[in-house]
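User: Some background: our group keeps a shared notebook of sequences we're curious about, and every so often someone picks one and asks for a predicted structure to add to the entry. Today it's my turn. The entry only has the sequence so far, pasted here. Could you supply the structure so I can complete it?
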Amino acid sequence: MCKSIIWAVNSSAYDQKFSDEARRVLGVAPETSEFHIKTKRLRKNTQYFTLVRNMCNCGSLIGLGQQGEPSDEIEAEALLNWLRGMPERANWVSRIAIYNTWSPQDEQLIPHTARGIKISELTESLLRSLEEDALLTIDYPVHA
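Assistant: Of course. Here's the predicted structure to add to the notebook entry:
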């Protein structure tokens, strides 16, 4: 039984530069996930991944509530900086998704709730308050 945070991004954005920048800023590289989120908010060619130092995200900031800073996971400021700087760090990023779940059983994950925000609306408290089986999509400005 383990908490899982499943991330999703456009498959074109999930390249070596994306991975290298995650490792540089967060201290951990993304690892491809077998889980898929069933939602109209994501394209069929979406790449799913996790960002964990251990086997699971039990101490993750996401969905932790106001329990304090997790002891062994990515720091809040580093995660916020990584998300806010995404367009400069990765090509083709227009949306990133975060799904908070506890011990998923099926590869196909169905959110109970979904919310979309602009990157300018992202806060630490929003990440901390992401409920179980909830999907948060973060949209970036379109670059011409």
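Suggested note for the entry: The radius of gyration is 14 Å. The longest strand covers residues 3-10.
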